């Protein structure tokens, strides 16, 4: 199992540019709407401080890589077609991409902060990026509402069993969103509603769809194109607007990340993704050097290009996932060390981790050890981000 981060947003905001910068793919980018039609999936990385230095060791990663104590752990990233108002009714490219989004565990909403593209992704001026945030949330809510309504019909038809509770039918209809009947029941009760759809009016159903969406598709806002003065002007008014206080914003320049990674590949500069600094190592033509100095101003001011920051905030904060290293108290004979680092759901216990590694390991679970403290931990102990855990199993 590997987490999937989905990039969403209206056309022309820079989703594909972000995707290419994060995965070093080469999907088409363009200043016209619907450059992307079919979704692309690629491998991106999230940074985790490596545990190896604490053991005075160097790690030998099986997946991803480690550089100067920072582990780059692979995660899946999905770039989908742009979403326009009315998408849930089939506008734009229809609702195919909503289905593509189904598989994403957490969303990064890429917003063009320059205000220079309208809701359809066409060039304009002085567009308020807040409208994009509102429309995307509404669109996702409508999509959820459609599915919720189907679940209610299913319940009313009694077709799947007379004695079924409403939350059972809703959970089955919404199974793609990875929410179970009990969780749905909690949401219904939390909204002060009865467990009877006949008592719900339009507003109640909308509130329910919205709440389920918020719980099952955590979302972060990537304020993109922040390398431009227009976007920077929008930053403060929007991020400090009380109406948007509940959201997390990360300032991003997908362009800057791409330029730095390309420069690194071409050997003209040293850049580690996510860092706030880089070193130019070659003699560059004046224009190119000046461009890089502009990027330097940007990454210094904003603490990086924002691409890594957005992915990590989405996964570790919005979704609340944790990274865990399988480890051993005794050194491995073959000289390998901390070969893996896995991303697990929030609240995972030592036993969950054992099952995650392999069903057999889970079934034979005896106990676990926190490799740092060498203390034994029980099956129900909840793990923390960056724990190093040894599992003892009969299998
Ligand atoms: N200034 C600036 N422009 C950017 C940035 N990222 C993307 N762009 C530009 O925005 C335009 C749209 O980029 P795409 O990556 O194709 O956008 P998209 O969201 O994938 O668009 P669709 O596939 O049509 O939905 C292109 O002209 C990019 O060069 C950025 O960080 N800064
Ligand atoms: Mg695209």
Automatic annotation (TrEMBL):
<dbReference type="InterPro" id="IPR004095">
    <property type="entry name" value="TGS"/>
</dbReference>
<dbReference type="InterPro" id="IPR012676">
    <property type="entry name" value="TGS-like"/>
</dbReference>
<dbReference type="InterPro" id="IPR006073">
    <property type="entry name" value="GTP-bd"/>
</dbReference>
<feature type="domain" description="OBG-type G">
    <location>
        <begin position="3"/>
        <end position="272"/>
    </location>
</feature>
<dbReference type="InterPro" id="IPR013646">
    <property type="entry name" value="YGR210-like_G4"/>
</dbReference>
<dbReference type="Pfam" id="PF02824">
    <property type="entry name" value="TGS"/>
</dbReference>
<protein>
    <submittedName>
        <fullName>Translation-associated GTPase</fullName>
    </submittedName>
</protein>
<dbReference type="InterPro" id="IPR027417">
    <property type="entry name" value="P-loop_NTPase"/>
</dbReference>
<dbReference type="Pfam" id="PF01926">
    <property type="entry name" value="MMR_HSR1"/>
</dbReference>
<dbReference type="InterPro" id="IPR012675">
    <property type="entry name" value="Beta-grasp_dom_sf"/>
</dbReference>
<dbReference type="InterPro" id="IPR031167">
    <property type="entry name" value="G_OBG"/>
</dbReference>
<dbReference type="GO" id="GO:0016887">
    <property type="term" value="F:ATP hydrolysis activity"/>
</dbReference>
<dbReference type="GO" id="GO:0005525">
    <property type="term" value="F:GTP binding"/>
</dbReference>
<dbReference type="GO" id="GO:0005737">
    <property type="term" value="C:cytoplasm"/>
</dbReference>
<dbReference type="Pfam" id="PF08438">
    <property type="entry name" value="YGR210-like_G4"/>
</dbReference>
<keyword id="KW-0547">Nucleotide-binding</keyword>
């Amino acid at each position: 199992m590997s987490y999937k981060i989905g990039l969403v947003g209206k056309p022309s905001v820079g989703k594909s540019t972000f995707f290419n910068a994060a995965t070093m793919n080469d999907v088409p980018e363009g200043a016209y709407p619907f450059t992307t039609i079919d979704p692309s999936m690629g491998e991106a990385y999230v940074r985790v401080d490596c545990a190896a230095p604490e053991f005075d060791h160097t790690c030998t990663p099986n997946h991803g890589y480690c550089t100067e104590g920072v582990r780059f752990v692979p995660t899946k990233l999905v770039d989908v077609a742009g979403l326009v108002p009315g998408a849930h009714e089939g506008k734009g490219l229809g609702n195919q991409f909503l289905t593509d989004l189904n598989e994403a565990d957490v969303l990064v909403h890429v917003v063009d902060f320059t205000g220079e593209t309208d809701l359809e992704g066409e060039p304009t001026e002085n567009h308020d990026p807040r409208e994009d945030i509102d429309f995307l949330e509404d669109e996702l809510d409508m999509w959820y509402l459609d599915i919720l309504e189907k679940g209610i019909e299913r319940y009313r038809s009694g077709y799947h069993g007379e004695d079924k509770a409403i939350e059972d039918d809703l959970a089955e209809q919404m199974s793609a969103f990875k929410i179970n009947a009990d969780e749905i029941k909690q949401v219904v009760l939390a909204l002060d509603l009865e467990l009877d759809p006949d008592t719900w009016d339009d507003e109640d159903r909308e509130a329910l769809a919205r709440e389920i969406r918020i719980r099952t598709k955590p979302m972060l806002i990537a304020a993109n194109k922040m390398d431009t003065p227009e976007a920077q002007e929008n930053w403060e008014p929007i991020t400090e607007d009380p109406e948007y206080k509940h959201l997390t914003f990360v300032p991003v320049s997908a362009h800057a990340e791409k330029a730095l990674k390309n420069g690194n590949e071409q050997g003209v500069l040293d850049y580690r993704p996510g860092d706030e600094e880089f070193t130019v190592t070659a003699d560059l033509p004046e224009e190119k050097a000046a461009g890089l100095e502009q990027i330097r101003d940007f990454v210094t001011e904003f603490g990086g290009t924002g691409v890594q920051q957005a992915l990590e905030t989405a996964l570790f904060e919005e979704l609340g996932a944790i990274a865990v290293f399988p480890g051993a108290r005794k050194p491995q004979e073959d000289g390998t060390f901390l070969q893996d680092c896995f991303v697990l759901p929030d609240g995972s216990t030592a036993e969950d981790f054992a099952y995650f590694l392999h069903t057999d390991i889970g079934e034979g679970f005896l106990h676990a050890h926190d490799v740092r403290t060498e203390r034994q931990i029980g099956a129900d102990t909840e793990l923390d981000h960056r724990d190093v855990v040894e599992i003892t199993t009969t299998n």
